[in-house]
Amino acid sequence: MKGCIYKAVIAFLFFTVNAFGFSEGVDYVKLANPIPNADKTLIKVFSYDCPFCYKYDKSVTPTVVSQLEGILTFKPFHLKTKGKYGKEASELFAALIVKDSAENIKLSSEMSLFKKAKMAYYNSYHDKKERWDSGAESFVAFGLKLSGLSESEFEKLKNTEEAKELMTQWEASYEVAKIQGVPAFVVNGKYLIYTKSITSIDKMVDLIKELADK
Length: 214
Hints:
The protein is α+β, with helices and mostly antiparallel strands. The chain has a single domain (23-212), classed as Glutaredoxin, CATH 3.40.30. The chain contains ten helices and five strands; from the N terminus they run αββααβααααααββα. A hairpin with a 3-residue loop joins strand 4 (184-187) and strand 5. The longest helix has 18 residues, at 2-19. The two termini are 37 Å apart.
């Protein structure tokens, strides 16, 4: 009997520790102004200009997204206010996301034009120190060449209702980024994860799953 009671107490304590392992103000914060129409999503606010966004997208984001398959939909939000060509990058990324969507390609897939362009910009900017000093046209041309889009197709895609809607949604990125910078991960449009509290990918996934159920 004593053994059964002991096991029951241990099981209760284990459940309690895990159930209350994360706390608001330490691991996450509830946004005062939630991102609209973001239920059942994991949003990542990022910038091509951000070295930490690059590091996360190389080793953390893909693993986290794969473990949340079927639970949350991953949505990248590009921050146009950061980087010399932030606006141009947002327009290009939105156009590529629209094209991926039309071809039923997941943004986490290696076939995604958005992902290919994003990683190429990261690599050129942070590793090769490319700055496209000749202007915005050369910045955009880099992405078009990589993705195989013509200028006319790009113009058509970025002016679709879908691309315009994406860029309108991304306007919320600025208020989110003001809280702790980027990258910024938001669950269900309401809960911003404090990246400083992340000590492992598993812990990050557990936290996201807990917030997803709130």
